[in-house]
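quick one, 174 residues, struct below
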Amino acid sequence: LFLALAAMPARAGKIVLYFYDNIGNGTAVADLTNNALYPTGFDDQTTLGLGTGQPVFGYDPGALNIDNYGASARGYLEVPVTGNYKFFIRSDDASELRLSPDGNPANAVRIAYEPACCNGFVDDGVRSSALIPLEQGKQYYVEALYKEGGGGDWFQVGWQLPDVIFYPTGGGTG
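---
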């Protein structure tokens, strides 16, 4: 886990999770984004809470164990302090994390991704971003894309705040 984060919540706005059910058994994020239903033909939506520690946000259907769906979690973050942040994503199956340098979704770029399954929050330059300078009081558009084929399913987004030591987590089921 990341330590010393409990008093540093993400603020401003909300993260909305959009579900795209029965969109095929592939596990690549492209199986979601290339589907005719994406991005406006979602089947359901729910609001995710922003955590005060790790993960910042995520989704786990628990015992439901749903298959062959995709999800997009979209919204806005306001960072608690100005500084350099590092973001992380982990999931079962593939996922990617996009961040905009401002509040405009059109400016979002991929900053980290899970190409397969089940790793922890690791600082490897794939599942983690480079350091990204962010300003307190400014809103940033964030989006996590996730594709589930079969078996277990979950995704989580975490971050390392400025001047906080990184303690990687193990893989597993969230």
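Residues 1-11 have pLDDT under 50 and may be disordered.
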